[in-house]
Amino acid sequence: MSKLTTMASCLALTAALTACKGTPANETFDYHVDRFEDIEVLRYRVPDFESLSLDQKRLVYYLTEAALAGRDILWDQNGKYNLNTRQLLEDVYTHYDGDREDPEFKAFETYLKQVWFANGLHHHYSMDKFTPKFSQAWLEARVNALPLELRNGLDFDLVYQYIFDPAFMAKRVNQAAGEDLIVTSAMNMYDRVTQKQVEDYYAALKDTTDLTPVSYGLNTRVTVDANGNVIEQQYKIGGLYSDKIERIVENLEKASRYAENDVQKKTIDQLVEYYRTGDLRTFDEYSITWAGDTLSRVDFINGFIESYGDPLGMTGSWESIVNFKNNEASERTETLSANAQWFEDHSPVDPKYRKPEVKGVSAKVITAAILAGDAYPATPIGINLPNANWIRAQHGSKSVTIENITQAYDAASHGNGFNEEFVHDEATRKLLDDYLFITDNLHTDLHECLGHGSGRLMPGVDPDALKAHGSTLEETRADLFALYYLADPKLIELGLLDNPDAYKAEYYKYMLNGLMTQLQRIEPGKDIEEAHMRNRALIARWAMEHGAADNVLEMVKENGKTQLIINDYGKLRELFGRLLGEIQRIKSEGDYAAGEALVEQYAVKVDPELHREILERYSTLSIPPYRGFVNPVYTAEFDADGNITDVKVDYTEGYVDQMLRYSSQY
Ligand code: ZN
Question: Which of 197, 347, 441, 526 has fewest C-beta within 10 Å?
Answer without folding.
Answer: 526
